[in-house]
């Protein structure tokens, strides 16, 4: 794929995520429906954190595309590849797959129907559906250098534990779980659910590595 098309893709993706984040920010101050609570703001939701992650990645990719010189050896390019391979791809895919799996089983466990009055359907899909094809598109438009697996998984583990501690802190502070599903688990069940999710994220990281190698080893 030509550098021009790659630039257009990155700029378009960054603009899309910036628009979504801006649209979410514009709802600040509106009356919240049942299912959403004030404490922690949007920062307690993995979906919102993922949107910021995707926007940051595509912003870095855009800046990297526009810088002169040999990009593959630049610090910015290495940071961009690290962000995509270790975080943006596995976390983004995880958000989409877990959300729609739970939604299909019982939406009240993750996205109560009352939220439909706050977020229109297109925004729900912007947050929980379109992330997947945009990430797959990124795999096709540019190769990425992956770090050693043990280092990548260690970084994912630290981030995963940090988010777990954060949502537990929110629960201990206000007595409400960020996601209703979590209230159905015992302490051991919650830990089991966390380790299951980290296993899924690990598999998604490995999938990203395999896809990257499969697509670009033939070019």
In short:
With 219 residues, the protein is mainly α. It has helices at 3-25, 46-66, 75-106, 121-128, 131-141, 149-174, 187-216.
Summarize this structure as a short list of keywords or feature phrases.
219 residues, 7 helices, mainly alpha, 69% helix
What can you tell me about this protein's structure?
With 219 residues, this protein is mainly α. The chain has helices spanning 3-25, 46-66, 75-106, 121-128, 131-141, 149-174, 187-216. Helix 1 runs antiparallel to helix 2, helix 3 (75-106) packs across helix 7 and helix 6 runs antiparallel to helix 7. The mean pLDDT is 93.
Write the layout of secondary structure elements.
Blueprint: H1 3-25, H2 46-66, H3 75-106, H4 121-128, H5 131-141, H6 149-174, H7 187-216
Helix pairs in contact: 1-2, 2-3, 3-7, 6-7
Number of strands: 0
So how many helices? 7
Residue-averaged pLDDT: 93
* Overall 3D form: globular
* First-last Cα distance: 10 Å
Topology as a string of helices (H) and strands (E): HHHHHHH
Low-confidence stretches: none
| Fraction of helical residues | 55-70%
Radius of gyration, CA atoms, in whole angstroms: 18 Å
Biggest sheet architecture: none
